[in-house]
């Protein structure tokens, strides 16, 4: 079971989406075509492909904000795998509100379910190994909380949520600081007792230098092929968490996991994943 995000976090995103869609004059099509907008109708949210669901509360809010009289009855839960044709929820209430809220609700639900579906596929591919699938900060502006929620719905875990979660020393930090050792030493001096330090390394030589500082909690092994990853894991020997990242795909993720890393992070899970095909079908 995945714990849902509270409505107070979701409503501003849904409200902004509806305001964007309604523009300056509202829903011209519905207002022109539907004679009695208050007439009660029923519709079904249905999966048009197999996948894992995430974002049902976003869909619910898209209808509720248009008209609080609309009843949203979910038939599945976030994190649940469904097959093509599955009924995800029934929506009942005034026709105008349902039609005007449909697209925004589907946009959120399809996008987040696409993330959950892609994550679940990767989680299944690495299940025999120790590696966990995690996302990155490569999220769409304003959508980080819900995109990372969708990763959790798919069985993955979350990397840091922002710059204030943890210290992640990357190549540019190293360059500006004058090297790995001074960068790590300054980070340790500044970090609170609950703040972990992660160091991005491109080579085994950098990895060894980072280990020598004794202050690195996690090593981000960037764009290393599986044989180098395997050697990196051997060198670390349990003294820190190992995270593989960079250019990993469903076709290569198993080989990366076989190298013995603890984490596999993938930015494309949130920035370019395909949506899940979900539709709203009128129910006579």
From TrEMBL:
Hexamer formed by 3 homodimers. It comes from the Bacteria. One of its GO terms (biological process) is NAD+ biosynthetic process. Keywords: Glycosyltransferase, Pyridine nucleotide biosynthesis, Transferase. Belongs to the NadC/ModD family. Residues 27-113 form the Quinolinate phosphoribosyl transferase N-terminal domain. Pathway: Cofactor biosynthesis; NAD(+) biosynthesis; nicotinate D-ribonucleotide from quinolinate: step 1/1. Involved in the catabolism of quinolinic acid (QA). Its EC number is 2.4.2.19. It comes from Komagataeibacter europaeus (Gluconacetobacter europaeus). Gene3D superfamilies: Aldolase class I, Quinolinate phosphoribosyl transferase, N-terminal domain. One of its GO terms (cellular component) is cytoplasm. It catalyses: nicotinate beta-D-ribonucleotide + CO2 + diphosphate = quinolinate + 5-phospho-alpha-D-ribose 1-diphosphate + 2 H(+). It is an enzyme of class 2 (transferase). Signal peptide: none annotated. This is Probable nicotinate-nucleotide pyrophosphorylase [carboxylating]. Residues 115-281 form the Quinolinate phosphoribosyl transferase C-terminal domain. One of its GO terms (molecular function) is nicotinate-nucleotide diphosphorylase (carboxylating) activity.
């Amino acid at each position: 079971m995945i714990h849902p995000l509270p409505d107070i976090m979701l409503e501003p995103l849904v409200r902004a989406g509806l305001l964007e869609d309604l523009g300056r004059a509202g829903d011209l099509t519905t207002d022109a075509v539907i004679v009695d907008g208050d007439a009660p109708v029923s519709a079904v949210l249905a999966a048009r492909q197999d996948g894992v669901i995430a974002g049902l509360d976003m869909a619910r809010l898209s209808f509720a904000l248009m008209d609080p009289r609309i009843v949203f009855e979910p038939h599945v839960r976030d994190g649940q795998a469904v097959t093509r044709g599955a009924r995800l929820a029934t929506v009942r209430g005034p026709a105008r509100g349902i039609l005007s809220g449909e697209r925004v609700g589907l946009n959120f639900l399809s996008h987040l379910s696409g993330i959950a579906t892609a994550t679940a596929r990767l989680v299944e591919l690495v299940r025999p190994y120790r590696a966990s699938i995690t996302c990155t900060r490569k999220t769409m502006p304003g959508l980080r909380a819900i995109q990372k929620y969708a990763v959790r719905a798919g069985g993955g875990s979350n990397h840091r949520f922002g710059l204030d979660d943890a210290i992640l020393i990357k190549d540019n930090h190293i360059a500006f600081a004058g090297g790995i050792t001074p960068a790590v030493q300054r980070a340790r001096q500044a970090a609170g007792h609950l703040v972990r330090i992660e160091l991005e390394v491109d080579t085994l030589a950098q990895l060894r230098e980072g280990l020598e500082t004794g202050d690195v909690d996690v090593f981000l092994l960037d764009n290393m092929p599986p044989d180098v990853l395997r050697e990196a894991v051997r060198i670390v020997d349990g003294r820190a968490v190992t995270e593989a990242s960079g250019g990993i795909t469903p076709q290569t993720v198993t080989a990366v996991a076989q190298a013995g890393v603890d984490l596999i992070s993938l930015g494309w899970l949130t920035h370019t994943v395909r949506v899940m095909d979900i539709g709203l079908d009128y129910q006579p």
